[in-house]
Amino acid sequence: MAPQEMDVVRAEDGAVANMGRRMSEFQWDRRESHIDFQGLVDEAKDAAEHEHKMGIFESIRTYPKAVGWSVLASTALVMEGYDLVVIGSFYGYPTFLKKYGSLSSDGTYQISAAWETGLSNGAVVGEILGLMVAGILADHFGYRFTIGLALILVICFIFITFFAVNIQMLLAGEILCGIPWGVFQTITTAYAAEVTPVQLRPYLTTYVNLCWVFGQLIGSGVLRGLLNYTDQWGYRIPFALQWMWPLPLLTGIIFAPESPWWLVRHGRLQDAERSLKRLTSSKDTEFDAAKTVAMMVHTNELEKEVTIGTSYWDCLKKTDLRRTEIACMTWMIQTLSGSGLQGYSVQFYEQAGISSTYSFDFAMG
Question: Over 90: is that where the pLDDT of 183 sits?
Answer without folding.
Answer: yes
